[in-house]
Write a structure and sequence with these properties.
The chain is of the alpha/beta class. It is built from ten helices and 13 strands. It has two domains: about 120 residues, Rossmann fold (3-Layer(aba) Sandwich), CATH 3.40.50.10440; about 120 residues, Hypothetical Protein Tm841, Chain: A,domain 3 (2-Layer Sandwich). Helices cover about 35% and strands about 25% of the residues.
Length: about 290
């Protein structure tokens, strides 16, 4: 067992096989639909959720885990003999998870003062958040110290980037997560907006007249960062749109060297805000 435990939540959207292989501990978000409360990836799974979402008359609401959820997760690790934890969360400007984890840390440290928990705000989302968790978990399994793991995370936060597109931004708008991209809501139907995240807030980075052109622009933007045939680690993310993710993958790998690639479907708690059909990338350059 690694000496440092890695904790995150369901919105990291890390494939289950990776969660298990890297011993990543996670806490589910909540989805509220009327009086029904669903637990992300526990009582609602991706396939059923993305079939159901387009049929709803009112957009479900999401809620981050509360302090009690994180206390339960941390206490479970303590019971396993862990005394060092890195807890990694999506942007605090888009979710309350980071603050909930901080509250949990404060409460549990009153009774377990020797427990060391480092709470991380990734200022990112989706598999950018996920990549940071994955790299931290690999470092933990290799025996890295808490300090070294946190330093690795701090290196990754500014270089991990998201680009995504969809046929509509209505889900982000309805969910109040559209950030500085609000003006794109007025775009005509055949315009495909590209959005990213900067300093923890969703921002517009361009528009295209077709999905194909949107994907070409993604490749161009990645290449501008990594260089032609530059080395990257990349996740192709989607919401009930794996074929679109595969198209992006084929285009990216014509011009860049993918040291590692993952295809990941967004968890329902993120899919509430993106809607089905969303596709994009989360990547970071790899040093030569």
């Amino acid at each position: 067992m690694a000496k440092v435990a890695i904790v995150t939540d369901s919105c990291a959207s890390i494939p289950e096989s990776i969660l298990e292989a890297l011993n990543i501990h996670w806490v589910p978000y909540y989805i509220h639909s009327g009086k029904e409360v669903l637990r992300d990836l526990v009582t609602i799974q991706r396939d059923a959720f993305y079939r159901w979402l387009p049929t709803v008359k009112e957009l479900p609401q999401t809620a981050s885990p509360g302090p009690g959820d994180y206390i339960t997760a941390y206490q479970r690790l303590v019971d396993q003999g862990i005394d060092e934890i890195v807890s990694i969360h999506m942007s605090s400007k888009a979710s309350g998870a980071y603050q909930a984890a901080l509250s949990a840390q404060s409460i549990i440290n009153e009774t377990l003062p020797k427990l060391h928990i480092n709470i991380i705000d990734t200022l990112n989302a989706s598999m950018c958040h996920g990549w940071i968790v994955i790299e931290a978990a690999r470092a933990a399994l290799s025996g890295s110290s808490l300090t070294d793991i946190v330093n690795r995370i701090k290196e990754m936060i500014p270089i991990t980037r998201m680009i995504q597109t969809a046929d509509t931004l209505k889900y982000l708008y309805m969910g109040g997560r559209i950030g500085k991209a609000k003006h794109l809501m007025g775009a005509v139907l055949n315009i495909k907006p590209l959005i990213s995240m900067e300093n923890g807030i969703i921002v517009p980075i361009g528009t295209a007249r077709s999905r194909k052109r949107a994907y070409q622009m993604m490749v161009e933007k990645i290449e501008a960062v990594a260089g032609f045939m530059g080395k990257i680690k990349i996740a192709y993310v989607h919401a009930a749109a794996q074929e679109e993710a595969e198209k992006i993958k084929a285009m990216v790998e014509e011009r860049l060297i993918s040291v590692e690639s993952i295809i990941a479907e967004l968890s329902p708690a993120l899919g509430v805000h993106t809607g089905p059909g969303t596709a994009g990338v989360c990547y970071f350059p790899v040093k030569p």
